[in-house]
Amino acid sequence: MASQIELEYQQNYNQKSVLIIGAGPCGLTNLKYLNNKVNVICIDCKQDLGGQWCLDKYTEETHPNLQSNAFYKQHGFLQSSMYEKLICNVPKSLMVFKDSPAQQEYDEFMTCSQFYQYLQDYSIKHQIKKNILFKTYVQSVRLAANLSDEEKNQAGIQISKKFLIQIVSSDDYTQNSRYLQADYVIVANGHYSVPNIPYIPNKDIFKAETFHTHQYRENLIQKFQNKHLVIYGCGFSSQDIFYILLKKTPENKRPSKITVIGNEIIIGYFKQSKNYQQEIESGILTFLSPYIKEFESENSLVLQDGQKVENIDIFMYATGYQYTFPFLDFEKDKLIDLHQRRGINYSLGPLYLRTFSIREPNLIFVGVLQQILSTQQGIERQSIFVSKVISDEIKLPNQQDMQEDFEKNYQEALNKYKDGNQYIKFAQIQGIDEFEFFRQIGKLCDIPCDEEYNNYVLKYLFPLYVNAHLGNYPDLKSSDVTSQLPRNYYPKSGHF
């Protein structure tokens, strides 16, 4: 049965119609800039907006009807949620959207619940929640021109738009299957929902309890008490876990030992961290590299250089997430390619300006950019760009010119990273400059860049990130940036 939101969307098919997948920050900003311009609907499988910031009460272990869940059916995991007491890694003044400051009483680094409330307030201010269809899962997105007669008949509707989208109940993928159409589809489902679990030989013989940071919740802390916890990975997720366990957990409830395994260069920095000097000297915290070669027994593993880690009670993957778009048909439509390494999807393309599918520019990706300092503003800048293209204020180049631009970006990434598939990854140190990229699309949008904001990010946030990557993550969460900015600062509305 179609909801009122669906019916209103269907009734306006005579207008330019846009379907957005995902009601997290990416989806919400696209809704904001498209609202009242076109016929738009946003679909999300959760019970409320916020994406990862909307905490699900269930995990894979506690879900009452896991096998019927539509997301689990296609991905093998439930959609991710931030854990209960997560603290953001960006100061609130630099994390907010234009014209929408955070509440003054919020913490310098907002908690998960504070940012979730911020998104709620944002949706109310811009009157966009009325366009969101919750507890609904996008089963497939097909290019109408490639549909067979049988597929058209199965839809049971007169197809007049570029895309045919099948949706189902997120709670039960066998229920309430129906179809919508769209001229444009904006993929805003994020890239932090499907865990990346690298293959480690002899996994079958390893019997220690195993998690991914995706599954971390506060109630897991009691499982770690007096146990030897091995964390595989040394990014911010890893640092967040051992920061909580060693700095925010009472001493009598901590693990007996934490071993962190990861990239040799980063681990080298960690070993020198002044923040964990006491824990390192006492032996409760150990940093090791290089990567894991194989599991050796039911509670031990071997690193690539022959070092052994023994008496493991709990093993946690802190190995990030991978790109996945199971609703796209990669055989029949082939609108994008997923780039793989060791079986993991870690990039995609070809995309024009890291946003528009060159093979079909009406398929749009917002929020796939990696490791940008200006996370929220990056999303918003992309959303402004997309809205101007959809509303015909900007005309995209022809396919050949877009492909040439992509290949230029790809070559730049190849020169920086020795891996061209990393062209969607930004890094201010020996990498692709995100601010140059946003100036480029700002020029296309005929909107001046917010250099004040850029300067604040580079002056105050960038040094904190560098210090955190050097193993001093606790310094990040205790920093004071807001007092160094103008009172109640937020990004300028008339700038990009």
Note down, in words, how this protein is organized.
This protein is of the alpha/beta class. It has two domains: 4-194 and 322-451, 3-Layer(bba) Sandwich (FAD/NAD(P)-binding domain), CATH 3.50.50; 203-317, 3-Layer(bba) Sandwich (FAD/NAD(P)-binding domain), CATH 3.50.50. The chain is built from 15 helices and 20 strands. It has a five-stranded parallel beta sheet, sandwiched between helices. Strands 8-15-9-10-11 form a five-stranded parallel beta sheet. A hairpin with a 3-residue loop joins strand 18 (351-352) and strand 19 (356-357). The two termini are 41 Å apart.
Keywords:
single chain; 496 residues; alpha/beta; FAD/NAD(P)-binding domain; 2 domains; five-stranded parallel beta sheet; 20 strands; 18% strand; globular
CATH superfamily of the largest domain: FAD/NAD(P)-binding domain
CATH class of the largest domain: Alpha Beta
| Through-space gap between termini | 41 Å
How is the CATH topology of the largest domain named? FAD/NAD(P)-binding domain
Secondary-structure content class: alpha/beta
- Most strands sheet: 5 strands, parallel
How many β-strand stretches? 20
The residue ranges in which pLDDT falls below 50 over 5 or more consecutive positions are: none
Strand order of the largest sheet: 3-2-1-7-20
Q: Based on the structure given, which CATH architecture of the largest domain is correct? A: 3-Layer(bba) Sandwich
Q: What's the helix count?
A: 15
Radius of gyration: 23 Å
